[in-house]
Amino acid sequence: MSATLSSQKTATALRTSARVSVELLLVLVMTAVVLWIMGRMWSVVWPLIVGLLLTTLTWPLARFLRRHGWRPALAASAVTVLFLLVATGIVALIAVPVASQSGELADGVVEGIQKLREWAAGPPLNIGDDQITRAFDTAIARIQDSIGSMVTTVVTGVSTVFNGVVTAVLALFLMFFFLKDGPRFLPWLTRQLPGRLATDVPVVASRGWDTLGAFVRSQAFVGLLDAVLIGLGLWILEVPLVLPLAVLTFVSAFVPIVGALFAGLVAVLIALVSNGLTDALVVLAIIVVVQQLEGNVFQPMIQSRGLGLHAAVVLLAVTLGASLAGVVGSLLAVPVAALIAVVWNYLREQLSDPPQEPETGESPTGAAVPS
């Protein structure tokens, strides 16, 4: 009898494991299909993503105007025009000088890497083994390729080609419509979805929007603080290319952990080439102090709530994003990981706290969706 009961339990466990495995396989297949479709539709998906990111930056001002009596269309128009003027001013005052010095910046980085290589070959390290030298040369080549790609993307971007112009224009129009009609999206979505999805999907969308907005705004402000403080230190030490390095620091702030290391490495290499070892060490100390202030003071004060991601998860997400989609992937890796965490946390809440049966016989979908 006990043997029969044990065999039944084993068969039940195997059937459950098989069912779960098939469900996970279906989820992975659907995820792969969605990613493939997004890749085929990238010319539309990329402006949509850029428009959403721009909306997270400009929505607080639009919300302020709407609360003070401005009509949605007027508030969205004013914010869009103001953003366009600010962006044009940035391009005229910063991007043009940075672009003119991009070649010098790349040459300085390459020269700094070569100096490090010569220093490693001399005393006290005296690295002379051929295998180590070949590995070091391979690492240098990869770093140079990455730096060239990053500098080219940061300085020139896609705005120099026709596709970049189209992306910018589409993103600007999408930002206007998001600012104008964004608050209507969740009620409309609630009416379109059947059953319990009318409650679950809008809640997840609302939480995802809050998380995305908190990330973009906090990273932008922290990046601005880093750029100002590090740029001021470089200016006091009379390190050349202060403006390109400050812009690189600001942009790199949107890639947590890896971005700060990359921008700091470039600044130290430029200081080593132009000012010598002493100033390079001073620049390194400035960057370490600023990064400590960012991690322990600025970010906790500015970011009202964290992303709920461990530093190891952030690092793995950035690495995976960079390997899959280069610079764009590294920029989008952390927001995507944060949105996945939002969905997972909501699913865990629903599984741990099952909904109670309605007492009045009304359908659960009749409940109001929290805003």
Number of helices: 12
State the share of residues found in helices, binned by percent: over 70%
* Element string (H = helix, E = strand): HHHHHHHHHHHH
- Count all strands and give the number: 0
Please give the structural blueprint.
Layout: H1 2-40, H2 42-67, H3 72-100, H4 102-121, H5 130-155, H6 162-181, H7 185-192, H8 197-236, H9 242-252, H10 258-275, H11 277-302, H12 311-352
Explain what the structure shows.
There is one protein chain. The protein has helices spanning 2-40, 42-67, 72-100, 102-121, 130-155, 162-181, 185-192, 197-236, 242-252, 258-275, 277-302, 311-352. The radius of gyration is 26 Å and the shape is globular. It is an all-alpha fold. The chain is built from twelve helices and no strands. It has one domain. Residues 153-160 and 358-371 have low confidence and may be disordered. Helix 8 (197-236) runs antiparallel to helix 9. The N and C termini lie far apart (56 Å). The chain crosses the membrane at residues 20-38, 44-62, 74-96, 160-179, 220-237, 243-273, 280-299, 311-344.
Summarize the structure.
The chain is mostly helical and 371 residues long. Residues 153-160 and 358-371 have low confidence and may be disordered.
